[in-house]
Amino acid sequence: MSNAHAANKSVLWDWLTTVDHKKIGILYLISGGFFFLVGGLEALLIRIQLMGPEMTFLTGDLYNQVLTMHGTTMIFLAAMPIIFAFMNAVVPLQIGARDVAFPFLNSLGFWLFFFGGVLLNLSWFLGGAPDAGWTAYAPLSTQSSGHGVDFYVLGLQISGAGTLMGGINFLVTIINMRAPGMTFMRMPLFTWTAFVTSGLILFAFPALTIGFFLLMFDRIFEANFFDANMGGNAIIWEHIFWIFGHPEVYILILPAFGIISEVVATFAKKRLFGYSAMVFATVLIGFLGFMVWAHHMFTVGLGPVANSIFAVATMAIAIPTGVKIFNWIFTMWGGRNRFTTANLFSVGFIPTFVMGGVTGVMLAAAPADYQYHDSYFVVAHFHYVIVGGLILGLFSGLYYWYPRMFGVMLNETLGKWNFWTFFIGFHLTFFPQHFLGLMGMPRRYFTYPEEFQLGSLNFISTIGAIGMTVGTIIFVINIIVTHAKGEKVSGDPWDGRTLEWAMPNPTPHYNFLQTPLVRGLDALWIEKMAGNKGMTPAEPIGDIHMPNNSILPFVMSLGFFIAGLGFIYINTAGLPALIAVIGGIGIGLVCMFLRSWIDDHGYHIHKEDLLKENKGVDA
Amino acid sequence: MASHEETKSVHHHTSLQKKIKLKQERRQHNVSFVMMILLTIVAFAAIASDAVSNQVAILFILVLAAVQVFFQLYVWMHLGHKGHEFPMWGIASGLLIAVITVGTLMGLIW
Amino acid sequence: MDVGQRLTDQNFPESPEKATLEGKNKFLGFWLFLGGETVLFATLFGTYLGLRNSFGKGPEASEIFQLPIVFIATMILLTSSLTSVYAVLALKENRVKAMRGWFFVTLLLGVAFLGLEIYEFVHYVHEGHTFTSGAFGSAFYTLVGFHGGHVLFGVLWIAALLVRNSGRGLTLYNSPKYYLFALYWHFVDVVWVFIFTVVYLMGKVG
Amino acid sequence: MLGLMGCGNPQLSALQPQGKGASALFDLMILSLAIMVVVLVVVFILFGYVLVKFRERKGDDTIPEQVEGNHMLEVLWTAIPIVLLLVLAVPTVMTTFDLAVSEKSAEESKDASGDKEGPMTINVTAHQYWWEFEYPDQGVITSQELYLPVDERVNVNLSSADVIHSFWIPTISGKMDTNPGDKLENKMWLHPEKVGTFQGACAELCGDSHALMYFKVKVLEKEEFDAWIESMKNTKYDDAPSQVAEGQKIFENNCLSCHAVGDKGGNVGPALTGFADNEKVAGILEHNKDNIKDWINNPQDIKPGNNMPDFNFNEQQLDALADYLLELKTAE
Ligand code: HEA
Ligand code: HEA
Ligand code: CUA
Ligand SMILES: [Cu+2]
After folding, report:
1. What is the pLDDT of residues C72-99, one digit of tens each?
2. Which of A505, A521, A537 is the endpoint of a domain?
3. Residue A616 structural domain
4. Are A516 and A555 found together in one domain?
5. Nearest atom, ligand 3, residue D163 CA
6. How far is CA D324 from CA D140, D141, D284, D290, in A?
7. Which residues contact residue D40 at a Cβ distance below 8 angstroms, ignoring those fewer than 6 apart?
8. How far is CA B98 from CA A224, B90, C191, in A?
9. A203–B97 C-beta distance less than 8 A
10. With contact defined as beta carbons under 8 Å apart, do D277 and D328 qualify?
11. Is residue D87 included in any domain, yes or no?
12. B86: which chain C residues are within 8 Å (Cβ-Cβ)?
């Protein structure tokens, strides 16, 4: 085997250089999971401060830092990477591919995200975190003292570049690398949502990239984009942010929709009800997602015409989303629903997300939003859709695909405890927040006076957050227990319907020994019903082409990380910062150059070796 | 489209056809180049001279720019050719969002 | 066939840039990337258009823009787009020398364009139109500078390709690289068409 | 649903509207809530039924029928939401236009009140972390406490001296941002319907003390309001009564550069004309002598990051200053 040279390198080296999408998926999962704990810790600090009126646990600027980092970490460093974890772990398998389209870029995308996240969080130790909210509205963000917002800009710029690469990678993978017979209308719904989400990433992130550049130029190089005294205009930032920001929330939720679709169908033992409508709804949500951003800006003063248009456009999204909800319910209808932990999370998702969705539609009524906007009603809305939607979806996906990713099955008893504590804690935390908002509590307030009678609901909310913490801790214990036991399971523990369950456990690093032939939706299920043992191969066993590992993505990302640090301090640290900038970018460019210079044709796993590995398989 | 296997050889008569096709293409490219140069000159002239009112001139040169883009994308980048369906989607979606973005940043900031 | 092997007239495929799966992936991925770049530049254009009359402390656009220079720069860039088209035509016929020659001309034209742009910027700065003189200044240099940065990157890219592949013929491995560069270069030209129209010509009439 | 009414503090809660704007919004909120409750009930009933009815039973290992879909149903659950949304969209658009300040709406309110000049205008300027209210036609400027006549429409121009804030009086109307720069000025109208004191707040993150940027709204009978305007107009900066002359002296030396009193002083900080009649100090502290003293020496502790420096007066100077400030009433 020509990759033998890799075998005697250390494990660490293997993980740093890997271009295997399955391993990159795990890297995304671990780092995203870690950042989820960090963001959760920040959420807890917020809830402790707001537990009662006039608390002094975290006040003023410190509160704003925690708040900003909570939102930013959760969205960019926890939710997005965990989504990418699943896309990496599952999409190539679901479409019957041996790999993603750009393995090298895939690895680069991960390391950029990782170093960007580290850079952002370094701010805690280097003089203070960003404090202008995750939305970083100018001119508050341009005037914010210290380097916090610089960390925000550069950290997210770097990790955003990684995300963009990921998006392109998955688009091309899904378009070009489907197995024979895997037409678009036979793709599993999770792959579909990954596809649309990647499209949204492709068109939403560039706007943010520019937004960050403008902010950076204003802060570091004295440009005047947002400075009214010099003719700048602060509303430009708001538009740019939300032109990205709204599609971003659908980037987050669509993959969760995909997960729910897989899980609900599998455990109902039924095919997804209304598959084509589901696909159409996904695409429509993605499209409409770009037409509604100004609903975050109803109070900015855009005028009644713009507000009305955006209000109506926003409401329209309820329709395709409703289609999905009803299709899930009718997938379960008449099924034989088994409530495993994975399915519990999916089933818990449905009513919770609907509650968050309908408050979204209430927010979309533009003038009513004059009351809701920037109040806890909005906080309640988006945690219902994000935590009650996305996070429950991600938990569901984790319990569902854990055997595929790690070869072991998470403990079901602990899983159920995990679900119920988290679920109840969640509602306890965020349901009261609707009322807090209506009672006049603005968001991003670090305190509130006794006399406004907001204390008791806030207290309940904090208790709920403790419930979620318990749930999360049980989850962590579950992982530890499971791996300590290390009981391997078969390749298809749930009686799955789609291709990712059509291979042995652990997944061979070339995925499919023979590319499968797909004969319809739920490809594996079709074969099972036809009485076949596995998929029908579309090709004879032959040499398999594999990409080479590379350390360049890691080094290149490290270079940009260093350059980022340099930019942050360029006005205060002088020469060393300049050296860091030049050196860092230099490292990045040299890596790029090396990548282009060194011919890299990958290697082949030879047929004989494959046969040796897979004794008993007929060629 | 051509897969790994089909690439092995190109038969002789097809290569002749290909020559002819490329020759035609070359002519198209030359024509579009001349057109683009002309369009550019006209655009500069429209602004430099006072013959047309400014509003009209702006509208006019924007149309000229759009035509040039068409030439670049379709003739030089072959966007209309077979096998460019997904690129077409990519560019079209990008343009749609581009138009929305530009429109907003011009119109909705007072 | 090995992707690193030199192509001959006998085994030369119809579209060498898309003859392998890697090539097809690159081709599609790059096009999609250009779709994203469209949004990127649109955001810059939108910002510029929103701020184009906010001169702050700097001079007004119509006072400073130098149409003759811009005109020459435009001609250079358009021509370079043509030369890269010629290069791609040569690529499709396996005429390596011609291809490399045309790409080299493209490179030279790119450098010339950059030279003019630098000259122009220096001139403006002398007139008091700087990055920090007002919102217009910031938006102008950011937009035009981003384009200039793209040209610079293109120049470095093609230079690297030419040097690396000197003395080597076309392979299924390097054809996509050349082809992608040509796409990129056209795109940069497309952006310029809008820059000279929206920034310079519209700026001249206010 | 009506149980929602009467929730929370009556000075602050959006659920207890005391003005035309807030009432219109409340009606819209109730309508939308009603629609959402219908949606929720339908979904929950279906969902609950499925959960109970189609659970996996022990020993049953039949394979359920693999249903592809159902056109009838799909049309149904597309069409019904569309209808529901239309029911919501129409009043949404109407209310949006009703709440906007336009030529037409100004005209109408002029006719309604029979007042020839049309509605009074107030310029609101937000600062980190206080509010300035100017009555341009009357030539009056005040801070922290907004005075409004009852049953009358006033137009408000909103802008900011620094970062973006948002002007919100939940009981009287919805919120509107205050943007920096003349170009981005916003307009809205207020129309309080009850006499009383209400709470206003800043609703856009604006810095360290965003959470402390409260203001009071005092809605008065028309005559009382006019009287207040008159007395504000007549308040001049003049020599204080002799017992607080020492305080005035200190004030002139340390404070007048930022704070206006009557017709003198700077505008970095809030105007203190009529300060003695305020309900709060700096919008948040109870109005008494101790708190005034506390504020003067520790503004940074009380409102982190605000633009008034900490002073270091001794007890006696503080007393004098506070006594002086407590004399800053409007003219009779
Ligand atoms: C995963 C993330 C996610 C998702 C999916 C959504 C979904 C929606 N959101 Fe939300 N939203 C956020 C994340 C998300 N949002 C965040 C993070 C913010 C705050 C950002 C910030 O300021 O920090 C926000 C803020 C926000 C606002 C701005 C509030 C403000 O700041 O003033 C608005 C206003 O219109 C809005 C609307 C909606 C709507 C209409 C939907 C719709 O897509 C919901 C559609 C779903 C349903 C309606 C339920 C199912 C449908 C049926 C059962 C059919 C029948 C239904 C009807 C007839 C109503 N959202
Ligand atoms: C993916 C997105 C996401 C997620 C998952 C969450 C999860 C949570 N969020 Fe938050 N939230 C946002 C996105 C998210 N949030 C955003 C975008 C904002 C707006 C920010 C802004 O205004 O700029 C916000 C704002 C926000 C506020 C409003 C603050 C304010 O306006 O002043 C509050 C208040 O209650 C809150 C609470 C919570 C809670 C209790 C959770 C819980 O669900 C968290 C549950 C998880 C845990 C409790 C983890 C358990 C921790 C441990 C086990 C210990 C960890 C140990 C180590 C690190 C070693 N969030
Ligand atoms: Cu002012 Cu918040
Ligand atoms: Cu949104």
Report:
1. 999 999 999 999 999 999 998 889 999 9
2. A521
3. 551-619
4. no
5. 1
6. 22, 20, 20, 13
7. A354, A355, A358
8. 23, 12, 12
9. yes
10. no
11. yes
12. 28, 31-32
Ligand nearest to the CA of A247: 4
- What residues have CB less than 8 Å from D44, skipping those under 6 apart? A351
Question: Which CATH number is C118's domain given?
Answer: 1.20.120.80
Say what the alpha-carbon torsion angle D283, D286, D290, D295 is, to the nearest 10 degrees. Answer: -20
Q: Could you give the dihedral angle defined by the CA atoms of residues D261, D262, D265 and D270, in that order, rounded to the nearest 10 degrees?
A: 50
Q: Domain residue spans in chain B?
A: 2-77, 82-110
- Same domain for A431 and A564, yes or no, is no
Residue D173, strand partner residues: D169
Chain D CA closest to residue B110: D184
Contact A395, D125 (CB under 8 A): no
Instruction: Please report, as a single letter, which amino acid is at residue A57.
Output: F
The number of distinct structural domains making up chain A is: 2
- Report if residue D282 sits inside a domain: yes
Q: Report the DSSP beta bridge partners of residue D155.
A: D121, D189
Angle at A428 between CA D38 and CA A333, to 5 degrees: 45
The reply to whether D288 falls in a domain is yes
Amino acid letter, residue D315:
E
CA distance C184 to C131: 27
Task: Compute how many other C-beta atoms are within 10 angstroms of the C-beta atom of residue A595.
Answer: 15
Locate A272 and state its tokens: 């997804």
Sort out which chain B residues have CB atoms less than 8 A from D183's CB and list them: 110
Distance CA(A296)–CA(A115), nearest Å, equals 30
Domain count, chain D: 2
Give me the DSSP letters along A537-574: BSS-S--EEEPPP-SHHHHHHHHHHHHHHHHHTTTTT-
Indicate the number of domains in chain C: 1
Whole-angstrom distance, CA of residue A284 vs CA of residue A472: 34
Q: Which two tokens stand for residue A444?
A: 């991003």
Note whether residue D232 is domain-resident.
no
Assigned domain for A474 exists? yes
- Domain membership of residue D251 as a residue range: 237-326
Entry pTM:
0.95
* Global ipTM: 0.94
Q: Which of A321, A324, A369, A443 to mutate to test the pocket of ligand 1 (most atoms within 8 A of CB)?
A: A321
Which atom of ligand 1 lies closest to the CA of A245? 20
Q: Which residues line ligand 1 (CB under 6 A)?
A: A 135, 249, 252-253, 295-296, 314, 317-318, 321-322, 325, 354, 357-358, 360-361, 363-364, 369, 372-373, 378, 381-382, 385-386, 389-390; D 39, 43, 81, 84-85
Q: Which of A390, A379, A318, A319 is nearest to A348 (CA)?
A: A390
Distance from the alpha carbon of residue A366 to the mean position of ligand 1, in angstroms = 13
**Residues D242 and D216 reside in one and the same domain:** no
- pLDDT single digits (tens) D284-305: 999 999 999 999 999 999 999 9
Contact (CB, 8 A) for A193 and A262 = no
Same domain, A436 and A320: yes
Based on the fold, state whether residues A223 and A299 are members of the same structural domain. Answer: yes
- Among the candidates A521, A543, A559, a domain finishes at A521
Identity at D220, one-letter amino acid code: L
CB distance B108–A203 less than 8 Å? no
Structure tokens at A224: 């005047």
Q: Are residues D151 and D260 in the same domain?
A: no
Chain D, residues 181-220, CB within 8 A of chain B, namely 183-184
Render pLDDT for A31-50 as a digit per residue (tens, 0 to 9).
Answer: 999 999 999 999 999 999 99
Strand D215-220 and strand D280-281: pairing? unpaired
What residue in B sits closest to D184 (Cα-Cα)?
Answer: B110
Task: Give the pLDDT confidence of A53-93 residue by residue, as tens digits.
Answer: 999 999 889 999 999 999 999 999 999 999 999 999 999 99
Q: Helices in C52-95 by DSSP H: which ranges?
A: 61-64, 67-92
Interface touch A202/C37, C-beta < 8 Å = no
Q: Please name the chains neighbouring D, where neighbouring means 3+ C-beta pairs under 8 angstroms.
A: A, B
In a domain, A181, yes or no: no
